Amino acid sequence: FVIKNIISILHIYYYLIKKFPIILNKKINPKGRSDIVFNKYGKIIMIDYAHSDDAFRNLLTSLNLQFDNIIVVYGCGGDRDYSKRSKIARTVSKYSNFQIITDDNPRNENPKKIRDILLKKSKNGISISNREKAIKYGIDILSKNSGLLIIAGKGHEDKQIYKNKIIKFSDHLIVKKYAKNLR
Questions:
Q1: pLDDT digits over 59-110, tens only?
Q2: At a CB cut-off of 8 Å and minimum separation 6, what does 58 contact?
Q3: Could you give the CA distance from residue 29 to residue 5 in angstroms, rounded to a whole number?
């Protein structure tokens, strides 16, 4: 409910000023929730912790009205509710133009099987297993068009879990690395 209110306020502000208020965003939202990390040249990159059908629907339905071009980088965690994956893929597919399906925290599951389930239910998606490469690919697409790139699922997290290996990983740092040359 709070996220819906914040997004509504941001939409009104967007119409009045024609850009999202990054400073306001950072003060209102906790890190990893609708976190706008880049906003220049008609290109916006947002990181969000969305990892359920409801969270994706709440995030994407209002943004879908604002942007003609929405790209979503996302995946689903392993060893979690399997039934939600198809729902998430259909929701993301419905409210975005392009989906880049990648690894989240596969844990003990085969990450390719998770991606394949999501890809099967996506209308315009591709699978890139390496999350850093997936984010870079999204930024590359955004570099050619204005629009919104949403990197979803991990939000504020700073690690990725593959079986018993914990790898240091931050969506924020990856965006910082590749978006610096975005024009």
A1: 999 888 889 999 999 999 999 989 999 999 999 999 999 999 999 999 999 9
A2: 3, 4, 7, 50
A3: 11
Global pTM reads: 0.85
CA distances to 29, 43, 45, 75, 148 from 18, rounded to whole Å, are 20, 12, 15, 31, 14
Confirm if 102 and 130 have CB atoms less than 8 A apart.
Answer: yes
pLDDT in tens, 110-137: 999 999 999 999 999 999 999 999 999 9
Distances (CA, A) of 160 to 11, 13, 103: 32, 35, 9
- Answer for the pair 101, 119: CB distance below 8 angstroms, yes or no: yes
Q: What is the DSSP letter of 151?
A: E
CATH fourth-level superfamily of 30-179: Mur ligase, C-terminal domain (3.90.190.20)
